[in-house]
Input
Amino acid sequence: MWKYISRKTQYALWIFPALFLLLNPFWNISSKWSIENILFIYEPRTLQEAEGYFSDVWNQSDDFVENSDNYVYGKQSNNDTGMVDEIEREDEQEEDWNPGIYNNKEKGNTSAFPFLMVSITDFWQRNWENFRQIISLILICVIGVSNIKFYRFCLKNRSFFRNEKEVKVYFLEGIGSPFLLGKDIYIDKNIIENKTILKHIIMHEYCHYKHRDYFWVILRNLCLIIYWYHPFVWLANEFAKRDCELACDEAVMLGLKSKEYEEYGYTLISVLKHSRPGQRHTAISSVTNHNMKNIKERLIMIKMKNKCSRGIAVMCIICIAILTGCTFTQKTVSKEEKVEKEEVVNHEISDLEPQEDISEKYYNGYYNVSAKAYGESTYVVTEEGIYCILEGSSTFQLLYEGSVTMGTLEEDRLFFYSYSKDEDKAAIMSLNLSTGDVMVSYILEEDFYSYMEMTSQNGKLYINKQGEIAVFEVQKDGTLQRKEPLQITVPKELQSAGENSKPVSPVIAMGEGYSENFYYERKEDSSCVRVYDGDTLVNEIDNITDIMITEKGVIGRDINNHKDVFLWNIYTGEKKSLYQSLDNENKLWIYTTYDENGVYGLLQETDNSYIVSRISWGGVIEKLFEIEEVEIFSDVKMSVIGDWIYYCNQVTGKMERRNLMNLMEIEIIQ
Output
């Protein structure tokens, strides 16, 4: 419509996107007319619909049917998390599950380039906001210093010419193009060939003043500083400057007679000959952008006479306002959605408030298999023994040397298994975290290999031991006194199932705040987990395997779609999807531990490398870093303590840690 509206109206239309751009970083504006209401009108699939869909897909997969029987679920030992394990070793590899089938060998490039690209992408996703703000701050400083110097240069070298209505006119040599700086007009004497040119230049710059361009030029440059990375903002800035000059040319012609239009055109050409693009300080001054293309466009506009229509101008303003309101605003959130979100948040918060200290549970739970936290120190098990790391320090102190397996914390003591290198013996050792003293708490019998996961509660140690729970009372001197074991009593409803029913990590259940609830897994044609309070059934779920008990619920896999992972609330029965393999190149994800931020696990990249990844409790996956030289996933042991993730590759024997806030910060513990 530019032929039917004035150039001033055309220039004024930029105010709508400019103001929205400046408001957006500080105030997210919602509108029922936002285009997001159309783009995001479709609700996501229900969990039942998604499960049905994936079930159909897997049932059509011959590879899955042929190889699914080669998995054993729920297998758990002292050094394993019970996710998914191989039945046999190398002597029966041809008959066992072939990892290549699930690893997509065609994409299994061992090159580091794909992982490097993923790492760079993940790094930018985590740090982009801070980086963007830093660059904007640098631009503000650079432009500010530059313009302060330029303003001082003008004050020092200018010479007064005359007053022109509301502004003052100064001569300033060496600037090339004339410009407006606040209420002052600056002109280079060298471009004044006659009085007519001087008159036209003053009129043009005075129109800049009347249009308040000294204010709008600052707004335009603020948009560039905030959105320096956005090419369309730069493009819009160039068009806005063009419309600014056209609006001033139009205003000048309103004060000239028609026979003077041609002389004004010659003035523009004369200024073009003396223009110096390098002398532009656009943050505080309105400098005419002189180049041949712009001058040609301005000369055509001078020659043409637009047929301006107020009706069309009003229509354009309305259209731009509506278009800006639709594209620069966000989807409105109804009261019902707000209430629902608040309920979800409150529910999640309530889930993280058990009777005991939640941070101690997260950091010292069974699934942290190689590290425990106490006070300001972290205790880590390596091949050499137990190291102590002081919070905020990279100094590692070896407290106990030998072959050990991490146990549990009870008040100020760390209990762990110690194995003799020369003799077939083992003992439960106690490390006093206050004094650093190590002592033998209890010597194990010949069947010490049957002692598995360990937890503590109310001054007692509970150890899972082949069909029973061994109980030890902690004495004041750190020794352990053996008590009557706890027999694992099967609820009456499951007693007839015999060997098809077994407890799922009863020691973990006791240590994680579920002391009155026992978990059972029944394997027949399918698996079923039932939660009991004594003989009272609390809840149950079918077709689940690879149980991992957390404060947020039970993590497991669907037997029919075993690559997909979900979270099950034992009280409400709700299933929430955490990981969808079809969204991740059909890869298997093995979860190992968790904290308040999410669940940590391994995503197989190639035959001998895994990517350590984290899935938030909301189901968002984040790839962290890669571990190479891995034979099977169970060779990698992981723990998460605060801002650090500890991992040990049992093939190479290396124990390392990375800072979750800065994954490039790697420390080898030795």
Q: What stands out?
A: Confidence is low (pLDDT under 50) at residues 41-51, 57-111, 344-358. DSSP finds 17 helices and 37 strands in the chain.
